[in-house]
């Protein structure tokens, strides 16, 4: 079964709810002729900041473009000021949730164990985890990339049940390529993605063959086609270039040409 490409916009702490509605209108206009292909030839999702989820969800209703959350708390509910729960994301109709993004790991102290707890929480739901992994520049220079990525993956998935593994998406995001304009070459991306695929198959069995592995880190219209045409690159997680509906649409269309 071929893996359908998945393109996910990660808006990070950008765009207000009102801007999200304008974005959606423009994106839908740009993708109009291809909306019927959503869910068949490609999947698209947008992860806005939490306050824009509701408005964006309404603006995208029935379009086939899905909602993603940038994060969630591992506990179901309780005294966790400033946090957002799984039930809240389900209530808003999210289909995906990022976990373990490198900015969460580096700026907010998230550990592999915390990422694993979030993965376990998501296993109770239909929201698919997009598990982000990736090495820092120092780790790459010390030739530790594959080891680091394998550890991040196996810790998050240790003992994971079928519910989790069936919907799992992995995003390989080398930290040195995020927001820096420095993209991994298609060869680097393919090498790491192939290693991730091997780890997934070793841990999860044949399902690992179907798991989508996205590349993230300075993806833009000018490099998307080449990256997406690599055998184990099944989509992209796009930060900066996803803030403009025209460039996000161009990347989405590039995925259609390579699928
Ligand atoms: P970038 O961000 O495309 O701006 O490099 C990617 C990400 O952090 O998900």
3D shape: globular
- Average the pLDDT over all residues and give the rounded result: 95
Which structural class do you get from the secondary structure elements? Answer: alpha/beta
The proportion of strand residues reads 15-25%
Q: Which hetero compounds are present in the coordinates?
A: 2-phosphoglycolic acid
Describe the structure.
The structure is a single chain. Helices cover 44% and strands 15% of the residues. Strand 1 (6-10), helix 1 and strand 2 form a beta-alpha-beta unit. Helix 1 packs across helix 12, helix 5 packs across helix 7 and helix 11 runs parallel beside helix 12. Strands 1-2-3-4-5-6-7-8 form an 8-stranded parallel barrel, surrounded by 6 helices. It is globular and about 45 Å long. The chain has 259 residues and is an alpha/beta fold. The longest helix has 19 residues, at 186-204. It has helices at residues 17-31, 53-59, 86-91, 102-107, 112-122, 137-141, 145-157, 162-167, 186-204, 207-210, 221-228, 245-258; strands at residues 6-10, 43-47, 66-69, 94-99, 128-133, 169-172, 212-216, 235-238. The model has no long low-confidence stretch (mean pLDDT 95). Residues 10, 173, 178-179, 216-219, 237-241 line the site of 2-phosphoglycolic acid. 2-phosphoglycolic acid is lined by residues 10, 173, 178-179, 216-219, 237-241.
Task: Present the secondary structure layout.
Elements: E1 6-10, H1 17-31, E2 43-47, H2 53-59, E3 66-69, H3 86-91, E4 94-99, H4 102-107, H5 112-122, E5 128-133, H6 137-141, H7 145-157, H8 162-167, E6 169-172, H9 186-204, H10 207-210, E7 212-216, H11 221-228, E8 235-238, H12 245-258
Parallel strand pairs: 1-2, 1-8, 2-3, 3-4, 4-5, 5-6, 6-7, 7-8
Helix pairs in contact: 1-2, 1-12, 5-7, 7-9, 11-12
2-phosphoglycolic acid binds at residues 10, 173, 178-179, 216-219, 237-241.
């Amino acid at each position: 079964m071929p893996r359908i490409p998945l393109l996910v916009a990660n808006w990070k702490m950008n765009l207000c709810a009102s801007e999200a509605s304008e974005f959606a209108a423009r994106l839908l206009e740009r993708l109009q002729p291809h909306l019927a292909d959503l869910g068949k030839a490609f999947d698209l999702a947008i992860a806005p900041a939490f306050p824009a989820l509701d408005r964006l969800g309404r603006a995208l209703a029935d379009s086939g473009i899905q909602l993603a959350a940038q994060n969630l708390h591992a506990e179901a509910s309780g005294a966790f000021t400033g946090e957002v729960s799984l039930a809240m994301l389900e209530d808003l109709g999210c289909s995906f949730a990022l976990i373990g993004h490198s900015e969460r790991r580096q700026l907010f102290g998230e550990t592999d164990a915390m990422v694993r707890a979030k993965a376990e929480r998501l296993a109770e739901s239909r929201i698919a985890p997009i598990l982000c992994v990736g090495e820092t520049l120092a780790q790459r220079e010390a030739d530790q990339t594959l080891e680091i990525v394998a550890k991040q993956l196996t810790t998050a998935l240790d003992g994971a049940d079928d519910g989790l593994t069936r919907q799992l998406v992995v995003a390989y995001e080398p930290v040195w390529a995020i927001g820096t304009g420095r993209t991994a070459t298609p060869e680097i991306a393919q090498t790491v993605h192939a290693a991730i695929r091997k780890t997934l198959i070793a841990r999860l069995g044949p399902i690992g063959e179907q798991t989508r592995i996205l590349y993230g880190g300075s993806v833009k219209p000018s490099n998307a086609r080449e990256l997406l045409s690599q055998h184990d690159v099944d989509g992209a997680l796009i930060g900066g270039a996803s803030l403009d509906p025209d460039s996000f649409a161009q990347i989405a269309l590039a995925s259609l040409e390579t699928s």
